[in-house]
Each structure stands twice: as structure tokens, then as C-alpha cells.
Amino acid sequence: MYKKSNYILLILSFCFFGCKKSENYSEVRKTLEKVLEDDQKFRQPNFDYVKQNLLDRKNTKIVTKIIDSLGWLGEDKIGHDANLALFVVFQHTQELSTREKYLQVMKKAVKTGNADKRQLAYMIDRDELLNHRKQIYGTQYSINKNGSAFIENLIDPANINKRRKSMNLYPLEDYLKKIDSSNKVNNSNR
Which of 51, 60, 109, 166 could form a disulfide with 72 if both were Cys (CB 3.0 to 4.6 A apart)? Predict the structure, then answer.
């Protein structure tokens, strides 16, 4: 474990000093692609909370060090999957203060084009619910006993699709249909 941490720090320090000059983020990309892979390691097909929570904490440390030293890197520098890893780590972190800190960083990254505003909507809604407030964009769903998706704790439901459109999300009805069809496929494969 100690050696692995030192290896990660070595990669990060290499990238901090090396990437700034040469704009070569290949090691950061590889690290983040591994983080993305680990993000799902114990979530599917059966969620193992203890093992996944340990991985999530490790991933959070890795990603916060990258962002603190290099900023929120866009797809143009690190590719789609590595950029996605930046988002999913904060979406899944149990550390509320960390999520809130990097939510602000992500908001700035959306303005510069380094983060996706659709992902920001998911992050905002998750943060709102974890702070016992209503979600704004309707991205966080639950599944009822019949296996159908539904949205609860939603602010101003009459204008939900206007807000979703502003974040490049498709209408709520289409979102729920997509979740339901995905659940049917997943359940038929079991």
C-alpha cells in the first residue's frame, strides 16, 4: 500500500512538472482511466459497499491531487474516459465537504469547456439531495416495486424540462423511459 501511494505521487509529480511544459498528459490519462475502471469494480453486478467504499476513498485522493495540481482537465487533454473519471469520483464520494469543494471547481470547468454541463446537473442534484434539499434537474431517480423509475424531491416540477434543456439534458419523460428500458434489459440478463 505504501509503495502504491508513492508510485501515484511520483506519477502526479511527474505530470505536474512535466505536463505543464509539454502538455503530455498520458500518465494522468492512464491513472484516471484506472480510476474509472475501479469506480465500477464492486458496484456491479452486486454492490459490495465495504470494498467499493475503500476504492472510492482511494480514488477521491488520487483525483483531488490531480485537480489540485493541474486543474480540471478537459477531454481535449486527457480523453473522454479520463475526464469522465473526474466527475464520477465526486458523484460517488461519501465525503460531503469534498464533493461541495469540487462542485465549485466543476462549475468553473464547465464555463471553460473542461467539464460537461450535463454531468454538472447530476452533481448538483446529488448535492442537493444529500443536503436534504430538493433536486433541480431531476437526475437522481428511484425504482418502485414494479421496477419503474420515478423522480422524487423535485423543485418546481412544472418547469423541469426547461431547466433540463438548459443543461443539455433531454426531457424528463424520455429520461425515465430510457432508465426503464435499461432496467428491463438488465433484469432479463440475470
Answer: 109
